[in-house]
Amino acid sequence: MAKAPAKDPFRCVECGWSATKWVGRCGECQAWGTVEEISAPKKLSLVAGNVTTAARPIGDVDLASAKARSSGVSELDRVLGGGLVPGAAILLAGEPGVGKSTLLLTVAAETAKQGILSLYISGEESASQVRLRAERLNAIDKNLWLAAESDLGAVIAHIDSVKPELLVIDSIQTISSSTVDGAPGGVTQVREIAAALIRIAKERSITLVLVGIVMVGVVVVVGVVVVGIVMVGVVVVVGVVVVGIVMVGVAFDENLRTSQFKPTPAVS
After folding, report:
1. CA geometry: angle 123, 125, 131, nearest 5 deg
2. Please, are residues 263 and 123 in contact by the beta-carbon 8 Å criterion?
3. Could you tell me the pTM of the whole model?
4. How many C-beta neighbours within 10 Å does residue 115 have?
5. Which of 40, 72, 164, 193 qualifies as a cystine partner to 263, CB 3.0-4.6 A?
6. Residues in the chain, pLDDT under 50
7. What does the pLDDT look like over 160-199, one tens digit per residue?
8. Residue 90 forms beta bridges with which residues?
9. Strands 144-148 and 118-122
10. CA 157 to chain centre
């Protein structure tokens, strides 16, 4: 007896829309040439795998590694429940131009000034462009490292080399991998790359901050795997099924007056 065909075997790599047959144009996002056939799902393995860390009584777990440290921006500390926690993954999302990059460059610099190694990966701008913004923000510190990369393998190489405690990826949609199906910035790429970076952050106790441009579909996919979402600016996202979305009502950019934007002092 022949098996019934898989339901909706074709999917748009940009927005995730599915169809029972191939079409040249996506019926949801209207993009051309983005509908591809989905490969057959792999059978779930029930074989025991390698353990990252051994299970232990909860009372024996060290609390020092989970202590939040100040991001240097009091408003961000407030919405994050105290600051940045080692091993945590945070998605900072917002519309283009609201100041996501400026805010996180400031956070990275203020963290570096506390003697904590910070690595800022820019996938959208060149290193010189980020350096120019850093000059305006007084965000130059020897503990703040900068790289302009858009390949996941290169990002991992920088992580291995610098060994940061804070990692900023600006933005997750610009990072791609040749080993992952789908177009760069599409649903499949964003989901797999975010999962890989989060796994690295958990294993190495790195605070990971992912920048995401608000687009219906991509935010939902990334939101499945991160622990918190911070929305910068007043934005409305329809259909996001995530618990605990925090809105930061002020858009941060280099044009704000000093009185409106004062980093909190570093905690000794």
Report:
1. 120
2. no
3. 0.69
4. 12
5. 72
6. 1-5, 216-229, 232-268
7. 999 999 999 998 889 999 888 777 777 778 888 988 999 9
8. 209, 228
9. parallel
10. 18
